[in-house]
Amino acid sequence: MKQTRMIRISFLICTICMVAAFWSGFYFGGSQLNADTAPVQTASGQDADSQKSTTEEKKNASRTDSVESMSNLSEEKYYVKVSGTYLSVYFSDTDRLYFETSLKVSDLPEYLRKDALDGIPFTSLENLYSFLENYSS
Description:
The chain is of the alpha+beta class. The protein has helices at residues 2-37, 48-74, 110-118, 125-135; strands spanning 78-83, 86-91, 97-104, 120-122.
């Protein structure tokens, strides 16, 4: 009985130590990550104000880059447009032909025909193929 109690207490102590180590890794590890990504200042003949402004510019530029990359995720990547009597798929950034479909414009409902003249935007290939599959015969 006494030996079982010692084993349980040892297990409890080890579990508490592992949880504390795991938590401290998250708590203190985040500050190390911020220190690694911060711009490094080097000593030079410039005054302190100009060094601060270049550091702030670098931080603002990195924030802008991350905002721009997030906006790229939600942009339309493909368009379905009318090409003669059939629909074609184009890349949205260059209006370059991606592929031609065998889907006739006349097979679409009237409201989609009007949209297809300007181009129907899609953000992913899954959405695009789902649309084409729904309206193909």
